[in-house]
Recover the amino acids of this structure.
């Protein structure tokens, strides 16, 4: 059944559901709302509603369900796969004003909050109170709702896991407008199908998250990082599974090529502390005593030197951490700034195959004659590979991009990997998902979508449609 | 060029505690680090050595554990250092500190250039560099952003004086206070930490220096009376602005003008 096109009566009714300044339509809607961070996929919603509560979302959904209007939910719009683009128009629900902390429960180590709180605000909120929310995706201005919707991973996944591991419960508005609470403050839960986990990573296609109960931890008292130079990227990456297999327990193992560091220097206008070597690993350790963390550092430093690192640099003070991690945080923007256009492959492979995959990106780089810089979470196998357009014509770019993605996803499949480690599928990667997962799995996913959203109103055209 | 770099061990974080009775900074049990401003002067010293040859040695005054600060300079690339440590030096203000340092410098072998950081993050006085040069009777220049050796016996220093850039030629030996944030200090090397030579450090106490009159050092030699030390109040004021884009732009511009961030 075709979607209902919003008319004057709809506008009048929808406008009555929120305060006037939180309702925009047509040309009042800023261009930002027509795309996400990576761009490339553009479409405006017909209506933009900035919501403040679960009830408001429920009222909107009830109307949308009754009238058959598609609905897309959006946080900060920092996604990289077009998931929050209203490709069918309709209503866009913006949760970025839902920033309240509802409860910090110190006895249960949980934080209940609204989905619009930014990751950086959330991290600093809990840290000020002596707690720690471990997931640490690079994009700190993403909302926690967005992080949950993509099951964002980030840099501490090696030791602490990903967003899913820190979501205890969710309040969700269903396509009918009904409100459900799934999971809770409980540590264990063996009560039926894991709907909470299904909702996590569903990119707004199954329901709208309006409240989350997060698991938090006591804040580790001490942390330090080490920057480890290697004579080649191969040598650096080959060391990663060995570090993982040793007794060390780093929170993060990131890899970076000199080329990426130089882009970052240009972008930030600030020199990186060391760019003499072709490749680096960046590791972090944390713990409750300086002695323990320094011990881990020393053991791993010895291990890396034995495994062929050129040196090990200590990154222990706030100033040193900021000079190194500040550069790491700028890589995406820095690569973006180095080219006319780019697209990203957020592939994840078993850690033992990271080296092989990166070597393969170099082969593809030569074969297709394009620049393909990369960086990423070597410790958890999640790589960020960027195909840069530079001076290619429209036609060449489309052809090259399609060919590069085909090659990368085929290689990932061959190595037992997956299409997305943390950015999601959205609109941009759904063709690849279908290809990799096959008809049976996709039809199971379609079945799930059909149960939650029989009228296909929630973020249509994404993931599996 | 033989370079001495003055360094200081300071509290490891800005969350410091002050003894409410004595008004003295609590250092026991709290982490320490090399003064962040000194990192820029160390980096400057290393790059001068790479360019013109010579040696880089660090000098610090502090309790025995301040040796850690010297060790770190060696891990960063310094050739060695001198620790000036004695109970008699405790509680020194900048005058007594610079006098004690000048005595230690007299005991060290010859040097061409002394580098200091802009200031420390605990004392914040930014006085010791200039006072040390006065005690040693050598010229000094502050706010340096670059140093070049263009003529035998002289260095050319570029200073950033906020409203203007000044280039000056100064005869060696001299003392230069290096500005903050002018380079990217290299990181301490684990490999170097394993190769520190036995004789890299010298320790000097009161009896090792020429003037052994205790009244010239520490609290007794200080001309500053500290009535109270307290951590600054944290200012986390936030203001939420509302309005249309152009109203917001005007409001932000007014705030920046009032705060003299823009002209």
């Amino acid at each position: 059944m075709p979607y209902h096109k919003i008319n004057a009566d709809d506008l009048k009714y929808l406008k009555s559901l929120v305060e006037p300044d939180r309702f925009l339509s047509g040309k009042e809607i800023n261009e930002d709302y027509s795309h996400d961070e990576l761009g490339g996929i553009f479409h405006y919603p017909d209506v933009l509603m900035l919501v403040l509560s679960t009830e408001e979302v429920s009222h909107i959904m009830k109307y949308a369900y009754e009238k058959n209007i598609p609905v897309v939910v959006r946080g900060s719009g920092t996604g990289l796969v077009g998931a929050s683009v209203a490709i069918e128009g309709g209503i866009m629900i913006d949760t970025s004003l839902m920033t309240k902390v509802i409860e910090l429960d110190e006895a249960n180590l949980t934080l209940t909050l609204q989905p619009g709180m930014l990751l950086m605000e959330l991290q600093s909120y809990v840290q000020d109170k002596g707690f720690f929310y471990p997931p640490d995706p690079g994009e700190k201005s993403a909302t926690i709702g967005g992080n949950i919707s993509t099951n964002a991973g980030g840099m501490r996944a090696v030791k602490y896991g990903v967003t899913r591991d820190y979501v205890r419960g969710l309040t969700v508005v269903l396509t009918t407008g009904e409100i459900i609470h799934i999971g809770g403050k409980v540590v264990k839960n063996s009560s039926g199908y894991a709907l909470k986990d299904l909702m996590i990573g569903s990119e707004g296609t199954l329901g709208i998250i309006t409240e989350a109960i997060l698991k938090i931890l006591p804040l580790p008292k001490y942390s330090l990082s080490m920057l480890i130079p290697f004579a080649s990227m191969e040598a650096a990456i080959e060391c990663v599974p060995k570090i993982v297999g040793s007794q060390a327990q780093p929170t993060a193992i990131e890899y970076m090529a000199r080329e990426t560091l130089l882009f970052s220097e240009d972008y930030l206008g600030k020199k990186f502390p060391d760019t003499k070597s072709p490749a680096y690993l960046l590791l972090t350790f944390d713990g409750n005593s300086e002695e323990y963390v320094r011990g881990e550092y020393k053991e791993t430093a010895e291990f890396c030197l034995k495994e062929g690192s050129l040196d090990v640099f200590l990154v222990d003070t706030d100033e040193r951490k900021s000079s190194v991690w500040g550069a790491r945080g700028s890589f995406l923007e820095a690569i973006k700034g180095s080219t006319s256009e780019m697209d990203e492959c957020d592939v994840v492979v078993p850690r033992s195959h990271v080296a092989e995959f990166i070597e393969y990106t170099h082969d593809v780089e030569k074969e297709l004659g394009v620049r393909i810089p990369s960086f990423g979470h070597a410790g958890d196998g999640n790589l960020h590979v960027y195909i840069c357009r530079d001076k290619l014509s429209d036609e060449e770019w489309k052809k090259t991009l399609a060919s590069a993605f085909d090659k990368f996803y085929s290689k990932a499949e061959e190595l037992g990997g997956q299409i997305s480690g943390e950015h999601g599928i959205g609109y941009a990667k759904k063709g690849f998902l279908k290809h990799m997962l096959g008809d049976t799995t996709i039809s199971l996913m379609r079945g799930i979508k059909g149960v939650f959203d029989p009228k296909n109103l929630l973020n249509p055209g994404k993931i599996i449609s | 060029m033989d370079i001495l770099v003055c360094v200081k061990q300071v509290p490891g974080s800005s969350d410091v505690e002050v003894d409410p009775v004595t008004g003295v900074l609590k250092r026991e049990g709290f982490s320490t680090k090399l003064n962040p401003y000194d990192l820029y002067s160390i980096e400057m010293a290393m790059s001068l050595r790479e360019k013109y040859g010579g040696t880089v040695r660090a000098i610090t005054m502090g309790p025995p554990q301040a040796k850690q600060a010297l060790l770190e300079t060696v891990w960063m690339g310094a050739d060695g250092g001198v620790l000036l440590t004695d109970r008699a030096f405790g509680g020194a203000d900048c005058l007594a500190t610079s006098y004690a340092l000048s005595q230690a410098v007299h005991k060290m072998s010859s040097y061409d250039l002394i580098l200091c950081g802009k200031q420390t993050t605990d004392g914040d006085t930014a006085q010791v560099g200039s006072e040390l040069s006065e005690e040693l009777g050598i010229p000094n220049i502050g706010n340096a952003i670059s140093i070049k050796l263009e003529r035998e016996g002289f260095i050319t220093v570029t200073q950033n004086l906020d409203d203007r850039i000044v280039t000056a030629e100064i005869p060696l030996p001299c003392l230069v206070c290096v500005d903050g944030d002018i380079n990217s200090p290299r990181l301490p090397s684990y490999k170097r930490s394993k190769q520190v030579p036995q004789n890299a450090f010298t320790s000097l106490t009161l009896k090792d220096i020429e003037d052994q009159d205790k009244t010239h050092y520490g609290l007794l030699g200080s001309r500053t009376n500290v009535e109270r030390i307290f951590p600054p109040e944290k200012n986390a004021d936030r203001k939420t602005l509302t309005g249309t884009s152009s109203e917001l732009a005007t409001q932000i511009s007014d705030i920046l003008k009032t705060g003299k961030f823009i002209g």
